[in-house]
Write a structure and sequence with these properties.
The protein is an alpha+beta fold and 432 residues long. The protein has two domains: 96 residues, Beta Barrel (OB fold (Dihydrolipoamide Acetyltransferase, E2P)); 304 residues, BirA Bifunctional Protein, domain 2 (2-Layer Sandwich), CATH 3.30.930.10. It is built from 13 helices and 19 strands. An eight-stranded mixed β-sheet has the order 7-11-12-19-18-17-14-13, with helices on both faces. It has a five-stranded mixed barrel with strand order 2-3-4-6-5. The model has no long low-confidence stretch (mean pLDDT 96). The structure holds 4-amino-1,4-dioxobutan-2-aminium adenosine-5'-monophosphate and magnesium ion. The site of magnesium ion (MG) has 3 residues, from strand 18.
Length: 432
């Protein structure tokens, strides 16, 4: 029996006869020779079918292959300096599993609507594979950092009775006799009871926002990692975020050189972001933006354009801290030196990739929090459990939420986050 191998390990099999299972990425021939590029999910390799060494039947099979046909290729691993992997396969036999119909995605440029309609097929193109591999790295780098720093995974529910991030972007789902449930916008409120059991916790999963905005930074379903820690205050909260993001940058630089190259990512820019992050206050941000010519006023939220303007001369991400309380969520603790401000920070990535993290210290005083819930006109009964936490052993605590696709967008340098998730959901897209 020939040994079945994966292409990422091909260097271990030089001179040996191996079996590779995969798809035909590309094909070219010059009379007596067929060059087949095989992809197996882990990598690609060129297999060479040389007519004089093969039976007519085997050579004809190679000739009959169409792009994306699925195959089992048998052959000998040869070192080959000109190959990007350093190796190629001298084909000795081939089983055709399926001859592919004409593949709809060709080398020529396709419009984005066509590509998204064919997302199930587009996923196998080189850049998309590179992106999926970077997504894998970023996801596990976040988990590794948290696991190594004492955070326990604590899964929050997706069906919830209340809003976490305002009521304007809620998805409603009919829920038996209870009326409606809402798809979670962030697991944060549920992580807060988690810290009273485990100290430091995180969740990681899909969250949902009925975003009406059609921008390159908004999905209606995206992945968020929420982290929450007892006895951590605002400044330390930012420190954890910076460490986490720098850990992610280093993981991607270490594990995904090839993918970054496929995506034509400027690696130097990514390297430079691994340096101390800047911290400015909201007030300072307004001054900076006004100096740069923006019409933004104190009290305004940050638009996409201002986000980009803010970081256009910064190599590192910028924390914008202490926002006017009216601009931020009800659960944020107010600054004791200036109760008009929330003890929060948004982390804005460089290179126009926008806000990647929202975080804050949480209000831990029962009466203040109750008043803020009432001010929002939220039904108190739905938040009673959340308020309870401030009655039974309340502690200072903080947390933050990382938008996975925004972070991947930045790491990979891809401009629209619809490519940072296998099947994007946007206001005008629900399929495939
Ligand atoms: O800033 P947000 O709204 O913060 C929260 O939801 C907090 N409850 C998190 C927490 O403290 N645990 O969202 C967090 C991050 C944003 O910084 C952004 O990166 C991403 O989630 N995000 C989106 N990503 C893609 N599409 C959208 N529509 C997004 N909305 C937010
Ligand atoms: Mg935010």
């Amino acid at each position: 029996m020939t040994k079945k191998v994966y292409l990422k390990n091909i260097d271990k099999y030089e001179g040996e006869k191996v079996l590779i299972e995969g798809w035909i990425r590309n094909k070219r021939s010059s009379g007596k020779i067929q060059f087949l590029i095989i992809r197996d999910g882990t990598d690609e390799i060129q297999a060479v079918a040389f007519k004089p060494n093969l039976s007519d039947e085997i050579f004809d099979k190679c000739e009959s292959l169409t792009l994306e046909s699925s195959v089992r290729v048998y052959g000998i691993v040869k070192s080959e300096k000109r190959s990007p992997t350093g190796y190629e396969i001298e084909l000795t036999d081939i089983d055709i599993i399926q001859i592919s119909d004409e593949f709809p995605i060709q080398k020529k440029e396709h419009g984005i609507t066509f590509l998204l309609d064919n997302r199930h097929l587009w996923l196998r193109s080189r850049k998309q594979i590179a992106m999926l591999k970077i997504r894998h790295t970023v996801y596990y780098a976040i988990c590794d950092y948290l696991n190594d720093n004492g955070f326990y995974r604590f899964d929050s529910p997706i069906l919830t009775p209340n809003a976490c991030e305002g009521t304007t972007t809620l998805f409603e789902v009919p829920y038996f006799d209870e009326g409606y449930a809402y798809l979670s916008q962030s697991g944060q409120l549920y992580l807060e009871p988690g810290i009273t059991a485990l100290g430091k916790v995180y969740d990681f999963g899909p969250v949902f926002r009925a975003e009406k905005s059609k921008t390159r930074k908004h999905l209606t379903e995206f992945w968020m990692m929420d982290a929450e820690a007892a006895f951590v205050e605002h400044k330390e909260n930012m420190k954890i975020q910076e460490e986490l993001i720098r850990f992610v940058i280093n993981s991607v630089l270490e594990k995904n050189k090839k993918e970054l190259c496929t995506l034509e990512r400027d690696i130097e820019k990514l390297k430079k972001a691994d340096a101390p992050f800047k911290i400015i206050t909201y007030k300072e941000m307004i001054d900076i933006l006004q100096t740069k010519g923006s019409t933004i006023q104190y009290g305004d939220d940050l638009g996409a354009q201002e986000e980009e303007m803010l970081t256009d001369d910064s190599e590192v991400p910028i924390f914008v801290e202490k926002w006017p309380k009216e601009t931020k969520a009800f659960y944020m603790k107010l600054d004791k030196d200036n109760p008009g401000l929330s003890l929060c920070a948004d982390l804005i990535a460089p290179e126009k990739f926008g806000e990647i993290i929202g975080g804050s210290q949480r209000e831990d005083d029962y009466n203040i929090l109750k008043a803020r819930i009432e001010k929002e006109n939220y039904p108190l009964k739905d938040y009673q459990w959340y308020l309870d936490l401030r009655k039974y052993g309340s502690v200072p605590h903080s947390g933050f939420g990382v938008g996975l696709e925004r972070l991947i967008g930045w790491m990979s340098g891809v401009k629209h986050i619809r490519e940072a998730i296998p099947f994007p959901r946007m206001i005008n897209r629900l399929s495939p």
